[in-house]
Amino acid sequence: MIRRCQGLDFDTILTIINDGAQVYKGVIPPDRWTDPYMSRDYLQHEIDAGVKFWGYEENGELVGVMAAQDVQDVTLIRHAYVCSGNQKSGVGGNLLRHLLGSATRPVLIGTWAAATWAIRFYEKHGFYVVSTEEKTRLLKRYWTIPDRQLETSVVLANQRADTLTTQ
Questions:
Q1: For position 123, which CATH number holds?
Q2: pTM passes above 0.85
Q3: For residue range 22-34, what is the model confidence (pLDDT) as tens digits?
Q4: Range of the domain at 44
């Protein structure tokens, strides 16, 4: 079951993110890795900035989360994580399809360039990696991230976002 996460889910969301993010350890640049991967303060900052989390439940427990954030004229898919024991079981795909089904704007996704499995996952769901020039322009327009993260990331767009990459 997919449902909108509530305030009571805060600790579970944080646990899922920090567990699911372990796949990045040793893959993304070491200067981008933190332990824990996401702090309580940063998660609260994201929620306060309008990042809305959705969760996938199995047997009454959240096992995956994915968020959407409307920024200007797009929807950003943010913070897509699945518990390590549930990865590669369809949880992420179900969450992504759910969020895409309710999106009324072009959709963009940012992820680590070194996370080739994540890039393949999004490509399997109809997204494509934009050019380096477009990535830089889109990241500066729609995200608030450090320059080093900009250098080590990619942006994926769906067909609905094609008009953004020509502006």
A1: 3.40.630.30
A2: yes
A3: 999 999 999 999 9
A4: 2-166
